[in-house]
Amino acid sequence: MKIKLVPFDKSKVLLEAQFFLKLAIPLAAAQLSEIATSFTDTMMMGLLGSKTLGAGALGSTTYIALLWTSSGMVSAVGVLTAIALGAGQLQRIRNIANQGLWLTVLLSIPIMLLLWNMAPILLHLGQEESTVFLTQSYLQAIVWGFPALIGFSVLKNLVSALNRPQIIMIIMVNGIVVNVIANYILMFGKLGLPALGLAGIGWASTLTLWSQFIAGMSFVSLDKELRTYQLFSNWYHFDFLAFSEIIKVGLPTALVFAMEISLNTFIAYLMGYLGTVPLAAHQIAIQTAGIVFMVPLGISYATTMRVGQKLGENDPKGVRRAGFVGIGLGVIFVNIVALIFWIFPDFIAGIYLDTKNPDNVEVVQLAITLLSLTAVYQICDGMQVIAGGALRGLKDTRIPLLISLFSYWLIGLGSGYFLGIYLHWGSIGLWFGLVLGLASAAINLTWRFYGKTTVKV
């Protein structure tokens, strides 16, 4: 069997890029606003003192890990909607939307129970009792917002697949303002309300999440374009086959997301094992990388939708073109960011710490070194998440799960532990491991998409 390499039509590539950016820019902005909300929460926790900040960070980390895993499952709603849109199957779009609401309920119940009862687990993991008490007050407030969070994620995937992501961007940007105001009122007890401290930040998040979900549902019902799909018209209808397909496509993605976040958590534990200086320097590098990562993540979502739409249209050339346009635009962005990291690591470190303070010299110097490695990390991370998004658009999630398992844990953690701990390279060795793991994922996932979309004759 011969492989036929079909050259790209430049005019069609440019047209695809224009259409793609209309999807990608709002989705990237939405992801940035999500991390901006988390960042402002962390800053406002700091106003309540270092002990409250530590307890809040513990709760926030737990909550985000569960959110990140759940969002991987929910992403299947967007994949299947995009394919149905490309195929012109309007009834199927409505059916998938209904199953998305069922998924919201069935995901939320066990996770809410887990969050409500996290205290014994945290104590078993060796956390201080006073810290756990504060953390639990935060989790038992924000837990009520989890259904709204998953429901809004379903909406985000639906409307993005239907080419209306601007709605999500507007809602999430406004959500930052609502969250900050609610934080201030509830944590300090303004407008005659009691001062709730850290729990107030949790309740503010719950209020914000429900306001976003209600706003999203309102837009879906009022927007002229979306109204034609009659989404959620039979929300109570449960379709076992359609629901099973969502689980089949979404579960491997959820496991990939869980593996990635657990790898980063484990690396942080190893940094803590090496000492306070490596842990602090690592936090600067990984926090900065995490902010920038939101843009490739938004591009990844857009790539999933465009590949899915072209798959539904039964357009193999369009599928290949959409995937590589997404990867190409993502690579351009991460290379620009990598250059900034490479040239200005001292400036970036100065955002977090006073570089003139002698007490910070060790941390700043190590952070500068790690930020140089982060430049390469960004390129690999951006490529692998977008290539993974392209494969999700093909409903190809099982083999990417194995690739991710091999790359993250065997290559990434294995080489990182060998270099950082066994060879005593310290935090630099651990970061080399992260880079190698992501490079492996980027190469293998991109090669798989290339292979899946190459015409064979």
Can you walk me through this structure?
- This protein is an all-alpha fold.
- The chain has two domains: 205 residues, no CATH class; 206 residues, no CATH class.
- Helices cover 84% and strands 1% of the residues.
- It is built from 16 helices and two strands.
- Helix 1 packs antiparallel against helix 2 and helix 2 runs parallel beside helix 11.
- The longest helix has 37 residues.
- The relative contact order is 0.12.
- The model has no long low-confidence stretch (mean pLDDT 87).
**Helix-strand makeup class:** mainly alpha
The total of beta strands comes to: 2
Unreliable spans are none
- Helix share, percent: over 70%
Tally of helical runs: 16
Sheet having the most strands: 2 strands, antiparallel
Alpha-carbon distance between the termini?
6 Å
Order of helices and strands: EHHHHHHHHHHHHHHHHE
Percentage of β-strand residues: under 5%
Strand order of the largest sheet: 1-2
Radius of gyration: 22 Å
Tell me, what's the shape?
Answer: globular
Count of domains? 2
Average residue-wise pLDDT? 87
